[in-house]
Amino acid sequence: MTDTAPSRVVVLGAGAIGAGVGGLLWEAGVDVLLVARGAHGRALAEQGLDLRLPGGPRRLRVPVGGVEDVRAGDLVLLATMGHDSREAVAAVPLEVPIASFQNGLRPLEALADRPLVAGVLYVPAERRAPGVVALAGAPSPGAIFLGRWPAGFLGRWPAGFLGRWPAGGLGPERWLAAALVRAGFRAEVFEDIAPWVRAKCLTNLGGTFAALCDAPPADLVEATVEEARAVFRARGEEVVPDEEFDARLGPMQVVAVDGLPRVGGSTRHALARGDRLETEWLHGWFVEQGARLGVPTPMNAALVALAERAMAEGWAPGALSPEGIREALGG
């Protein structure tokens, strides 16, 4: 440990993304503690992480603990669903910095009283069974962009950490990016991460479509994204263009792991498990902002309502045909 390194990285919400990233950091020599609930957490503690990669499986005995084990000097990677943000960090000391590895803007707003690093992730991951995680990215497992939130703001960083993470020095975001590169990821730090966060928000808006329909109509997805772009324009906020975002991710493919292709993203996998979906936290933010600014967001609002119905009725992934989802959304 040096004066500019955390004593440990604690992954809160060590599901597909959290356990996959945490496992590779641990394998690269970082002191890591995984925190996960239920059968998945028990499997990690009892059997280790069964990490499936394009190059073959690995069994990693990463330490497992609880949120009560977080201590001063740690860096927390928060990888829970966005709606669990406040509950997940309630027991984390206020001086411990948090890197949000979550989707959307609401988690960053919910953590506004914390020293915070925003993470923009493209890491194709899947939790296949308790303790079993597949990372399907190639040639790297994924790309992760980092930056302090909000840009350059130190007001929430306790005095002790301002010495430990000096402005312009090797702050937590730069230390973490270097560690992620050693672990095999593409990682980069941006002084202003907000335009990249907004761009990732737009890509996330296809997740509920992919959860509910195997072949969602492209025009419905684009209409939903265009509503969100209009909200950002009304707020006067910059969004990184799609071409620049894709280029910065670098060459990457989503490949079959153990002969099994990855279908859909985190929202589809959550629906399959019967978990609460993030749709209201992702799309609902645009609905709220649109109402405040006078920007119509009917597609986003309809998708929130449809996701609530899917959860209440226990739909399976891909339950709707293209025609069915068009009818359900009034499109």
Word description of this protein:
With 331 residues, the protein is an alpha/beta fold. It folds into two domains: 8-189, NAD(P)-binding Rossmann-like Domain (Rossmann fold, 3-Layer(aba) Sandwich); 194-329, N-(1-d-carboxylethyl)-l-norvaline Dehydrogenase, domain 2 (Orthogonal Bundle). Helix content is 42%, strand content 18%. The protein has 14 helices and 13 strands. It has helices spanning 16-27, 38-47, 85-89, 106-110, 159-164, 172-182, 194-204, 207-212, 218-234, 242-249, 266-273, 279-293, 298-313, 322-329, and strands at 8-12, 32-35, 49-53, 56-60, 74-78, 98-100, 116-122, 125-129, 132-135, 137-138, 143-149, 186-189, 253-254. The strands form three sheets. It has a seven-stranded mixed sheet with strand order 2-1-5-6-7-11-12, sandwiched between helices. A four-stranded mixed sheet has the order 4-3-9-8. A two-stranded antiparallel ribbon has the order 10-13. α3 links the parallel β5 (74-78) and β6 (98-100). α9 packs across α12 and α12 (279-293) runs antiparallel to α13. It is globular. The model has no long low-confidence stretch (mean pLDDT 92).
Helices and strands in order:
Elements (H helix, E strand, L loop, with lengths): L7 E5 L3 H12 L4 E4 L2 H10 L1 E5 L2 E5 L13 E5 L6 H5 L8 E3 L5 H5 L5 E7 L2 E5 L2 E4 L1 E2 L4 E7 L9 H6 L7 H11 L3 E4 L4 H11 L2 H6 L5 H17 L7 H8 L3 E2 L11 H8 L5 H15 L4 H16 L8 H8 L2
Parallel strand pairs: 1-2, 1-5, 3-9, 5-6, 6-7, 11-12
Antiparallel strand pairs: 3-4, 7-11, 8-9, 10-13
